[in-house]
Amino acid sequence: MKHMNSEVKEERTSNKKRIDLFLVPIVLIAAFLNLFKIWTDEYANAYYTAAVKSMLQSFHNFFYASFDPGGYVTIDKPPVVFWIQTISAKIFGFHGWSVILPQALAGIGSVLLLYVLIKRTFGVWAGRFAALAMALTPIVPAVSRTNNIDSMLVFTLLVATWMLFRAVRTAKFGWVLAAFAMIGVAFNMKMLQAYMVLPAFYVFYVVATKITWKKKIAFLTTATALMLAVSISWAVVVDSTSADKRPYMGSSQTNSVLELAFGYNGINRLTGNTSVTGSSHKQPAQTQQQTASSETKQTSNSSSGSSQSSNQRKSSSSQKMQAPGGGNQNGMFNTGNPGPFRLFQKGLSDQISWLLPFVIFSIVGLFAGVKFKGPYTTKQKESLFWLAWLLPVAVFFSIAGFFHQYYLIMLAPPIAAFAGAGAVALWSMYKQRNGWKSWLLPGGILTTAALQVYIMSPYVSSIGVAPIAGVGALGVILALVLAVRKERKNFLTNYLGAAALVVLLAMPAYWAMTPIIYGGNSMLPAAGPDSSSGMGGPPSTATNSKQSGFNGMQPPGSSSGNSSSNNQMQPPSGSSNGGQLQMPGGSSNNGQMQPPSGSSNSGQMQMPNSTLSKASSSKRKSGGMNAEVNKKLLNYLTKNNTGEKYLFATTDSTSAAPYIIETGKPVMAMGGFSGSDPILTVSKLKAMIKKGEVKYFYLSGMGKGGQSDVITWIKENSKEIPSSKWQSTSLSSQQGPSGNGTLYEITLK
Q: Which end of the chain is more exposed for a tag (fewer CB within 10 A), N or C?
């Protein structure tokens, strides 16, 4: 106990010291990477931005995280992060940057927290290097520059980690409760993903605390109970509320938060079974493929595909979209093939794995000589914590059936922690000529440089040969020189070691800047020369990403003037599956997404064309497939609205979101985000029309999901509005991904 009290006094004394001047540039780097030019993203992730717009309008929408101002359906995640975004928008005004700001600050906060966590045990230089590694891990700023949840989730889990470490140092049970309660808060950000760190929390507390087993079990049981209570608190309130008094729970099939948490946002991520289940509306296999998952349609906000090669364009007609949820598990969104080396595959390795070999060597060095029965030093205990965070999460991403690249931010803290702690530990072993351990530093540098060359090799056409050859050559030379000079001690050796670490961080630093250099993707954030596409495709050279989605999906009833050849879905470059795009969810049709029946484009998927609301050339409305507003359609709907609650109804959120953002008026996404939610029935729709709540329906053929009966009824009982009244006169029809977009009107007496 005296030792613990002395540690607390030491910590208080340390906190009174002046600011670490070496930390200042690291924080400035993080701030630049996370904040610079976020003001150019006007829509951000339009699905979530529309929800913030709706949540600003009433406490009812705020509490339930309603997607639309009418309170029809919620978004597919819990509300905590969106409460924070809404508060930010209330303070600073509703802008794309104001909903991104909390995540950007969380990214900077994570860098500072990691510095604090590592510095105290492993030393100030370990803390500095860990903070720098966290700041330069490419996926960290890529996610933090968007209004997606994961940056805030990681920050919250690091706060919980700080509380847990403090609980062990001070032997105060209150901090244990606070740490596990914070995980409960994180659950209300992204549900079961927050629980990925639980093995680390349990293992560390059991190993690090010097209390009886009886107390350990009692304390952990109580803390876990509190965590579960906090986790389900919002879900219990929502699920206990009558369905007619709240929005439908988006992306669930039973209108339940708990089903959403443990199904769609839980076990289904591991199994890859994100196909529509539980719907009261049967649907053909082809429709199921197209609407299998709401996140399947989180397509890229790329700039126009101006940099695509002619070969890609010519071959796109024969490229098909396959579903990994069934027999084929190659994965859309560049997530590679499940297996032990998945994190080293293209699309994942360049997001998170730049320092993994060095981390492996660091783990060997930090645990060298450790006996299973102990005793353990503080460094070994905390190293065990980071290992228990790293391994389960790495295993999950190695075998999971469905996830996105940006989820990999969960691996950033332990990788950065081991990079910082390991750099100091391996350097010490090297300087002390500690037998075989002294070879770990040059070995780690050599293998890490080799991996980085491998990671960059598919991007030769984008970044050139020089940086790849430079990293490889310098890494080999510095590793060999350090090996040769292992028996010498002078100032030159110190500089060589520092130079080697700089070389290993050079390309991750460049990759971390790519969302700024090439443009970001708010729907599917990813780093790299193809960062604006979010699909691992070729980099775009356009500076104003007016066209979004797969090379420019556009809003209903509009015309971009581009030829159809420029509006085709392209597969990830370098795909190992023959250039086939893949979708989650199995199918009875070999997982292939078929083109619209009767299509005249030789099997090519056509994107909606558009005549767009013009914005400043410095802005990017990169919010998703339909991230722009067709002014002619909007004017028609507004002029002919006779008091209806909803401006119009459409199949899914991608058509609805930009209109909600621009107008703040309710737009009904009948089937939720993907169009697959079984929210609406024919009888319910009839009642809404009779009450005068909605009369206009835009149907593009997208996301029918569980709505086939409703859509059929709409077509049979409505009059079609001539396209000349709401659509550009340059086009006679609206080309949608699954058919022609059409505006209908229904009035019932």
A: C
* 214 beta partners: none
Instruction: Write down the number of H helices and E strands in the chain.
Output: 29, 8
Helix (H) or strand (E) holding 357: helix 356-367
Question: Would you give the DSSP letter of residue 193?
Answer: G
CA distances from 255 to 80, 141, 246, 250, 261 (A): 19, 34, 10, 7, 12
Task: Please list, in sequence order, all residues whose beta carbon lies within 8 angstroms of the beta carbon of residue 492, skipping any fewer than 6 positions away.
Answer: 485
**Peptide bond just before 442 cis, omega within 30 deg:** no
Read off φ and ψ for residue 581, nearest 5 degrees.
-75, 145
Give the helix/strand (H/E) hosting 741.
strand 739-745
Residue 33's CB is within 10 A of a number of other CB atoms, namely 26
Please name which of 247, 232, 233 lies closest in space to residue 55, comparing C-alpha atoms.
Answer: 247
The model's pLDDT over 392-435, given as tens digits with 9 standing for 90+, comes to 999 999 999 889 999 999 999 999 999 999 999 999 999 888 78
Q: Residue 263's pLDDT is what?
A: 81
At 418 the pLDDT is 98
191 φ/ψ angles, rounded to the nearest 5 degrees: 60, -130
Sign of CA dihedral 95, 97, 102, 103: positive
CA distance 25 to 202: 35
Report the distance separating Cα 479 and Cα 649, nearest Å: 63
Cα separation of 655 and 117, whole Å? 44
CA dihedral 465, 525, 107, 441 (to 10 degrees): -40
Kindly tell me the sign of the dihedral angle through the C-alpha atoms of 677, 682, 684, 686: positive
pLDDT band at residue 492 using 50, 70 and 90 as cut-offs: confident
This prediction's pTM? 0.82
Output 247 or 701, whichever has higher pLDDT. 247
Amino acid at 228: L
Q: What pairing do the DSSP bridges indicate for beta strands 696-699 and 668-669?
A: unpaired
- 367-381, 607-621, 703-717 — which is least confidently predicted? 607-621
Neighbour-count burial of 4, counting CB atoms closer than 10 A to its CB (0-12 exposed, 13-18 middle, 19+ buried): middle
Rounded to a whole number, what is the distance in angstroms from the first to the last CA of the chain? 79
Name residue 697's beta-bridge partners: 649, 744
Q: Provide mean pLDDT across the span 80-102.
A: 97
Q: Which amino acid is at 407?
A: Y
- Are the C-beta atoms of 659 and 665 separated by less than 8 Å? yes
**What are the tokens at 345?**
């595959």
Alpha carbons 606 and 496: distance in angstroms, whole number: 55
State residue 542's pLDDT score. 35
pLDDT band at 706 (very low <50, low <70, confident <90, very high): low
SS3 262: helix
DSSP tag of 398: H
Find out whether 481 and 495 touch, Cβ atoms under 8 Å: no
Pinpoint the alpha helices (H) of 16-45.
23-35
How far, in Å, CA of 66 to CA of 73, rounded?
6
Return the SS3 of 366.
Answer: helix
pLDDT in tens, 663-682: 999 999 999 998 889 999 99
Residue 592, classified by CB atoms within 10 Å of its CB into exposed (0-12), middle (13-18) or buried (19+), is middle
- According to the model, what pLDDT value does residue 262 have? 87
Does the pLDDT value for residue 622 go beyond 90?
no
Among positive and negative, which fits the CA dihedral 307, 548, 289, 269? positive
- Mean of per-residue pLDDT scores for the chain: 80
Candidates 191, 321, 275, 394; CA nearest to 594 is 321
Lowest mean pLDDT across 12-26, 100-114, 367-381, 705-719: 12-26
